[in-house]
Design brief:
By secondary structure, this protein is α/β, with parallel strands linked by helices. 50% of the residues lie in helices and 13% in strands. The protein is built from 24 helices and 15 strands.
Length: 549
């Protein structure tokens, strides 16, 4: 990343150990809905188009190609060139932009909020999954081109979700008043954040690269959209990543007919409600991720992003005095489509209307709400994309791996709840047998004989036998529990080392990828860290990856 311009991915790969994999269901961090989706449960098939297998992309390509017009392609490329106007573009990104004009070019897309300094680690996993899938598709379909796309959520207004990142167990936070679409926010106050972050870093070359990247992104641009575009372009332009800002008048003009239908006919509400109800009927464990509104659009202007609602015979922007008749709001939409912003329910539709997209890569929560949307897409004659769960990763350094080996604890063990981990390790290393299962089995056998005697003598005696059996089983369980507690106290120092390691790898009892920022790993490993991710993340592998670095 010389002078903050570009990352050159070179590294000595021998410093890394092979990647391990764990089924997502066995991590206990993923919902039953997502695990059932990954298992391709028959009941879920009506809620998606094609499952993301390499052999299924041919059909997706043909379907999308038949629908996506050259006119939309030209508008898309023109808008993107304008968005990139003030940014240094790599030759590969420029080539990808040009290729988007061709009817044989398609996109693979991921999206994310404009988190400060990229936010949690999984931001990188999303984008690298997207880049790597495009490479795989090109090998499989050499006559087609595949462009990795990052969709910036510039129109979100949840500032509290994006105004911080974690570094070395501390929150680096941007404090300011904020309203409206976050992408339009000025960067006031980020000088103080830069100074605070800089104090946490050392004076190594990697630290200086991080400082330069933060400084150039956030101190040399005017709003959060421009800062994030610069930041992500600097990190990934060597791979031809194309960054899309949907908050664009020309792109929204393409989407205007769908927004008009939403205003007039509430086209989304009933379909999504119906799909959500059907999902909930399949399982009580399938939690609804999004709830549609009767009108799934916001109105945005400087410092404002509020819902549009229909009250009797007029439309109104909540929390404001802005209101229209139907004729007036449709005239406003035609003249200023950029002032209308799809919410989380309609944003996927917007994305698929303006992109020649084959596949969306997202986290479990994202895929869960996409599964609510297929019928809405079908009603509006828009091809529903393939849905791929992004790569998830646990990064373990060499020192941590050696501790695991010494403590005789497996990576899989660390995914357990802390109390269960302590119990398993205690039973594993204890010199005495804490498991009374054998004694319970023997006791149950003895009582079977007593039941037989009771049957032959006095059947009323069975109740007394059952009560005594319950009492003695509970007595054994109580003794087992007391013995386990005693052994845990005896092994307290050993267990403390185990739980300390678990806390390092699962900060705040959460997945590492949801808590830590890339900067902590870049500080130690530099560009080799990103190269390792590029080389190891297989988006179609379908299991949780454990990468030792």
């Amino acid at each position: 990343m010389k002078n903050g311009e570009n990352l050159i991915f070179t590294a000595n790969r021998s410093q890394f150990m092979p990647t391990q994999y764990i089924p997502f269901r066995e991590t206990h961090y993923f919902s039953s809905l997502i695990c059932d989706y990954l298992d391709e449960k028959e009941a879920l098939k009506p809620f998606y188009n094609r499952f993301p297998k390499l052999e299924n992309f041919e059909g997706q390509i043909a379907e999308k190609q038949s629908q996506f017009s050259d006119g939309t392609r030209n508008i898309l490329v023109k808008s993107l060139m304008s968005q990139y106007a003030n940014l240094k573009i790599s030759a590969l990104t420029l080539s990808n932009l040009d290729l988007l004009k061709e009817h044989t070019t398609f996109t693979v897309t991921t999206g994310h909020q404009l988190n400060l300094f990229t936010g949690p680690l999984y931001f990188f996993y999303k984008i690298i999954s997207t880049i790597n899938l495009c490479k795989q598709l090109k090998k499989e379909h050499p006559d087609h081109n595949f462009v990795p796309v990052y969709w910036m959520a510039t129109e979100d207004h949840d500032f509290e979700e994006i105004n911080f990142f974690n570094f070395d167990g501390k929150k680096v936070q941007w404090n300011r008043d904020a309203s409206g679409a976050v992408g339009e926010l000025s960067l006031d106050g980020l000088e103080a954040v830069f100074e605070a972050f800089g104090k946490e870093l050392n004076t190594t070359e990697n630290a200086n690269e991080l400082k330069r990247l933060f400084s150039k992104a956030y101190l040399e641009h005017h709003n959060l959209t421009d800062a994030m575009r610069y930041l992500v372009n600097t990190l990934f332009k060597a791979y031809g990543l194309v960054i899309v800002d949907g908050n664009d008048a020309n792109l929204k003009q393409v989407f205007a007919p769908f927004m008009k239908a939403e205003l007039k006919h509430k086209t989304t509400f009933e379909q999504v409600e119906d799909s959500s109800a059907k999902l909930n009927d399949l399982s009580a464990n399938y939690k609804t991720q999004v709830n549609p509104r009767e009108i799934n659009l916001f109105y945005i202007s400087k410092g404002l992003r509020e819902r549009i609602v229909k009250i009797e015979n007029h439309y109104q922007v909540l929390e404001t005095n802005i209101k229209w008749t139907e004729t007036e709001i449709l005239a406003e939409l035609e003249k200023h489509p950029e002032r209308f912003s799809p919410n989380v329910v309609m944003r996927p539709l917007f994305q698929e209307v303006i992109l020649p997209n084959l596949c969306y890569i997202g986290g479990g929560g994202e895929l869960a709400y996409w599964l609510q949307l297929k019928s809405s897409f079908e009603t509006q004659n828009v091809v529903f994309p393939m849905l791929l769960l992004r790569n998830s990763v646990l990064l373990v350094n060499e020192k941590q791996q050696k501790k695991l080996d010494k403590l005789e604890v497996s990576i899989e063990d660390l995914f357990l709840k802390t109390s269960d981990l302590k119990t398993k390790v205690t039973k594993q290393i204890s010199t005495i047998d804490i498991d009374f299962s054998t004694q319970k089995t023997q006791l149950e056998q003895q009582f079977k004989e007593l039941y037989s005697i009771a049957e032959q003598t006095d059947k009323s005696f069975k109740g007394a036998v059952a009560a005594q059996e319950t009492k003695q089983i509970k007595g054994l369980e109580h003794l087992e529990s007391r013995l386990l507690k005693a052994q845990k106290r005896k092994l307290d120092s050993y267990l403390a080392r185990v739980t300390d390691l678990q806390e390092q790898l699962f900060p705040n009892h959460s997945l590492q990828e949801r808590q830590m920022n890339f900067s902590q790993f870049y500080l130690e490993y530099g560009e080799a860290f990103l190269l390792k991710l590029r080389d190891e993340l297989n988006p179609l592998h379908g299991e949780f990856a454990v990468i030792t670095i």
